[in-house]
Design brief:
Length: about 220
Amino acid sequence: MLIVIPGVLDAATLEQVRALLADAPFVDGRLSAGKSAQRVKHNQELDARDARIERLNELVMATLVQHPLYQAAVLPHRIATPFYARYTRGMRYGDHVDDPVMGPPGGQYRSDVSTTVFLNDPGEYEGGELVIRTAFGDQRVKPGAGAVAAYPSSSLHQVAEVTAGERLVAVTWAQSMVRDPQRRELLYQLYQARESLLERQPDAEETTRVDHVYVNLMRLWAEL
Ligand code: NI
């Protein structure tokens, strides 16, 4: 399941993030790529040693992890600190699946859900779509600044070539409490039905029943 949540970061936060990134040192993205991804990865990433990272993470991650739709769709158990990536003209990231296990020794986690946070306006670059290859065809995503796209890390995906301008994103990964993407999707659909019932018919018996089924399915499937 690919979900796109618009407006996770507001305009003021985005402005601060872009100001921090404007004069930050970027390095070749291949330095952080696994062996097979190195062959197809062509972008730049903020130098992981740069002092701005801490402030950037506060701005981007604090908002992301608290967002109710992100929580409901991803069911995060562990979330990685993000990479800040830049694609200028001619840059792309060819078809790949993300590394299965990430993080330093002792702090490793399994990547279940990949997340892209779009940091600038889609009008500022041409191309640069995030393309998820699904059994039902390609899904191409190029949402507004502040939007978030989350999809299973196991899915084949790419970033199309940027042919003009500059694409700025933050990317991160989560280990989910629910490992199976099909189960996560079912839980997310049930969550949405529950939210709608709780709003429209808070006192109805079926609302209570759906609520209990959601809660107990989570208990049944959650692994910590
Ligand atoms: Ni990827």
